[in-house]
Amino acid sequence: MVKAVIDPSVLASDLSDLAAECKRMVESGADWCHMDVMDGNFVPNITFGPPVLACVNKAVPELYMDIHAMVANPKQWVPDVAKAGAKSYTFHYEATDSPADVIASIKEHGMKAGIAISPETPSSAITEEIGNSVDLLLVMTVRPGFGGQKFMPECLEKVADLRKRFPSKNIQVDGGIGAGNACQCAQAGSNVLVAGTAIFGSKDPKATIHEMRSSVDGEIAKWE
């Protein structure tokens, strides 16, 4: 079964309704809320940090906050993000020389661990040791740090490779995902699809989420 994940970071310019929008999207059928934490170092943009996450968690305690840490020192952020109520924490392979240490810290703080690779990073960078130690593998289908970019279909070759090597793992795709390419992502092996602009820009988010889910469930059933 596909997990429909919404990314409210497209609302970063107006955080006043963030919690309400997260709640609305979950009620529309989203499974997780994918929160992009950017520090202005690993990527040039800055979004929000643990204080905002804690406010969202307080307002919507049932929310599954899936943190995507686009930060230069991912281990440093782990304790505060966990305290803020995050359920999972995904960091970038490119941001650390010691992914095992970051993964261990994430798990010690009671969160699911994920690792992301940017478009320029080959899937071979995810070794058997790394892949088997995390709960989720994230393949970026745009360059990290900016919303509204065009989907990069060539990145799906990495999804296929990771699915072959780690058949039981959640494999997430993030960047330019919508109803038009959701099935393509599932065919490659992704079962966790992140959509931001496609959902928040929709006049009927519930229908859009349903359309995406329906288009990929059959493909996922072929390899689950």
UniProtKB/TrEMBL annotation:
Cofactor section: Co(2+); Mn(2+); Fe(2+); a divalent metal cation
Keywords: Carbohydrate metabolism, Cobalt, Isomerase, Manganese, Metal-binding, Zinc
Name of this protein: Ribulose-phosphate 3-epimerase
Taxonomic lineage of the native organism: Eukaryota, Fungi, Dikarya, Basidiomycota, Agaricomycotina
Entry keyword annotation includes Isomerase: yes
Cofactor note: Binds 1 divalent metal cation per subunit.
UniProt organism field: Kockovaella imperatae
A Pfam family hit: Ribul_P_3_epim
PANTHER family for this protein: RIBULOSE-5-PHOSPHATE-3-EPIMERASE
Family to which the UniProt record says this protein belongs: Belongs to the ribulose-phosphate 3-epimerase family.
Enzyme class: isomerase
